[in-house]
Amino acid sequence: MPLFARQLIILAGSSTLLNLLAAAAPAATPPAGSRLRIVTFNAQCLAAPDTRDTRLPRFRWEIARRRHVEQVAHLVEVLEPDVLALQEVTSQPAIDLLLQVLAAKGLDRYAGYHAESQDKFAGFDIAFVSRFKPDLVGGQPLRMLSSPSGDTTWRESFSFTDENGREVRRDTALTRHALFYFDVHGLKLGLLGLHLKADPSDAYSNARRTAEARIAQRIIQQEIVARGYKPIVLGDLNDYDPDVPDRDSRRSTKTNVLKLLKDYDPGQVGDELVNAAERIVRVADRFTSHWDINENSTSDDGDVFTMIDHILLHQSLAPKIRRTFVCRLSDLKTSDHWPVVVDLKLP
After folding, report:
1. Per-residue model confidence as pLDDT tens digits over 160-212
2. Which residues, 6+ apart, have CB-to-CB distance to 193 below 8 Å?
3. What does pTM read for this prediction?
4. What 3-state DSSP class applies to 188?
5. Tally: H helices and E strands in the chain
6. What is the rounded CA–CA span in Å between residue 215 and residue 203?
7. Nearest-angstrom CA–CA distance, 143 and 124
8. Distance from C-alpha of 335 to C-alpha of 327, rounded to nearest angstrom
9. Residue range 60-76, pLDDT digits in tens
10. Are 334 and 65 a contacting pair, CB within 8 Å?
11. Which residues of the chain have a pLDDT value below 50?
């Protein structure tokens, strides 16, 4: 990495709050042979009730925002994840409120970590809620990497053809991501939470998402594998995996985004990561998002249901997968996505 490359290590919240959360965070290490549950969920604009912390507010009133946090807490209460990656979180106070609700339910062994993104349009961020105390890297429990304009360490150029047939060149950072490391029974896991550019049918979005995936490749190799951790990539990837057919056979990827992420080391033969969705036996169950086309807040025949949220695990973890499923306990009042759940058997 060039010396002038700037790594932005971002953690919202005061040091006092961080210390309180860290003290409450670690649960007793689960016994060998028990379950390790990893979940990813796009909560669709999780915001604290009394703050102006998002540029695209989903709920204007405090009572609606608080109800939304309660609904997400209900999912956590039912699923009891060991590690939860959340997308479309808007602030640390939103995570703090979620933790307060969980603690009131008796689930007081969770801690939450929020990374302020570079998403200047929506202000959506990545957060992790975990029962495990994270391994600190650079003194931080959650990390986000970036480079200034002109430094290609954590930036990537891309091109696309616009609606007038002109080729346009731009560059991008990986604006919405976070790195979370932990160790359980000597199994060192490095999680890269992602929320890639939306709209898999748009030329600009597809080109930018592909560039984001190339940055993610470098992060996996240089910041996870090089540190001795097994990589897990999870989140709202906003694209389809051609190797894992989903419910809607009419839609297919126009990019190689999933291929780039799974084959993060082109110097090696084959993919290094496997999509846990392969273990969802019934193809009709392979959908994680609901595009409510007519915006009537209900499920209609013309709506689109596809799998764009994924959990990609290192091949060495594949034999440890007990089960993969998509939780259907929420509706559009909670989110237009559903949680993806993977259970691993600990070594």
Report:
1. 999 899 999 999 999 999 999 999 989 999 999 999 999 998 999 999 999 99
2. 40, 85, 87, 126, 128, 177, 178, 179, 180, 234, 235
3. 0.89
4. strand
5. 5, 15
6. 19
7. 16
8. 12
9. 788 999 999 999 999 99
10. no
11. 1-25
Secondary structure of residue 101 in the 3-state scheme: helix
In the numeric block, which tokens belong to residue 141? Answer: 């429990």
Backbone φ and ψ of 125, nearest 5°: -125, 175
Give me the long-range contacts of 148-155 (CB less than 8 A, separation at least 24): 148/6, 151/2, 151/4, 151/5, 151/6, 153/1, 153/2, 153/5, 154/5, 154/7, 154/215, 154/218, 154/219, 155/215
Here the contacts of 277-285 (C-beta below 8 Å, separation 24 or greater) are 277/241, 277/244, 277/246, 277/307, 277/310, 277/311, 277/324, 277/340, 278/243, 278/244, 278/324, 279/321, 279/323, 279/324, 280/324, 280/325, 280/326, 283/245, 283/246, 283/247, 284/247, 285/247, 285/325, 285/326
For residue 250, what pLDDT is reported?
Answer: 86
The total number of residues written for the chain in this structure: 347
Structure tokens at 1: 């990495």
pLDDT for the residue numbered 292: 67
For residue 67, the model assigns a pLDDT of 95
Q: Which residue ranges make up each domain of the chain?
A: 15-345
pLDDT in the model for residue 326: 98
Which of the listed CATH numbers 1.10.1740.10, 3.30.160.70, 3.60.10.10, 3.80.10.10 matches domain 15-345? 3.60.10.10
CA 159, distance to chain mean position in Å, is 25
